[in-house]
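Field log, afternoon session.

UNIT: design team B
ACTIVITY: writing a sequence onto a fixed backbone
BACKBONE:
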C-alpha cells in the first residue's frame, strides 16, 4: 500500500499538470490586432505537437506500468486519469484535424500577403469557398468563435497587404 500511495501521488501530479495544459489550451488567446491567418495554422501546429508529445508520454511503458499497478490495486485515482486520457485524445484529434483543414488555406496565404490588391481580390472567391468548406465539414473548426477568429485574421492580412501597397505606390 505504501508503493500504491506513492504511485497515486505521482499520478495526481500528472493529472494536475495535464489539466493545466488542457485549461491553457481553452483560454482565449491574446493576439496582435494585425495578425494574419498563417498564425492560426501555426497555433494549431504547435498545439498538435504539444498534445502528440503528451500522448506519446502517456503511452510510454513507464506510465503504462504505473497505471497497471494502480489498476491491480484498484486505485481511485484511475477514474480521473481515464477521463483526462480521453480529454487529451480529444484535444490531440482536434488539433490534428484543425491543422489538416487549415492547410487547405495555406495556398492562399502567399497571394494574400504579397499580391497587389487587385490580384489579391482574384483569390477571394476561392478562399471564401475553402473557408465555407472548412465550416461545413470540420467537426471541430465549425464554431462561431473559430470562424470569427479565422475571418478576422484573413481580413487583417488583406488590410496589411493594402497598406503595404499604398505605402509603396
Amino acid at each position: 500500500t505504501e508503493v500504491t500511495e506513492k504511485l497515486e501521488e505521482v499520478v495526481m501530479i500528472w493529472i494536475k499538470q495535464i489539466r493545466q495544459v488542457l485549461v491553457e489550451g481553452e483560454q482565449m488567446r491574446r493576439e496582435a490586432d494585425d495578425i494574419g491567418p498563417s498564425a492560426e495554422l501555426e497555433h494549431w501546429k504547435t498545439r498538435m505537437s504539444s498534445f502528440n508529445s503528451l500522448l506519446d508520454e502517456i503511452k510510454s511503458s513507464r506510465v503504462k506500468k504505473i497505471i497497471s499497478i494502480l489498476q491491480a490495486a484498484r486505485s481511485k485515482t484511475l477514474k480521473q486519469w481515464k477521463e483526462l486520457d480521453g480529454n487529451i485524445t480529444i484535444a490531440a484529434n482536434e488539433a490534428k484535424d484543425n491543422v489538416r483543414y487549415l492547410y487547405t488555406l495555406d495556398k492562399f496565404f502567399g497571394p494574400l500577403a504579397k499580391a497587389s490588391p487587385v490580384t489579391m481580390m482574384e483569390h477571394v472567391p476561392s478562399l471564401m469557398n475553402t473557408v465555407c468548406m472548412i465550416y461545413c465539414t470540420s467537426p471541430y473548426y465549425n464554431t462561431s468563435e473559430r470562424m470569427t477568429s479565422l475571418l478576422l485574421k484573413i481580413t487583417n492580412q488583406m488590410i496589411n497587404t493594402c497598406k503595404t501597397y499604398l505605402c509603396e505606390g
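LOG NOTE: Residues 2-168 form one domain.
NEXT ACTIVITY: expression trials, pending approval
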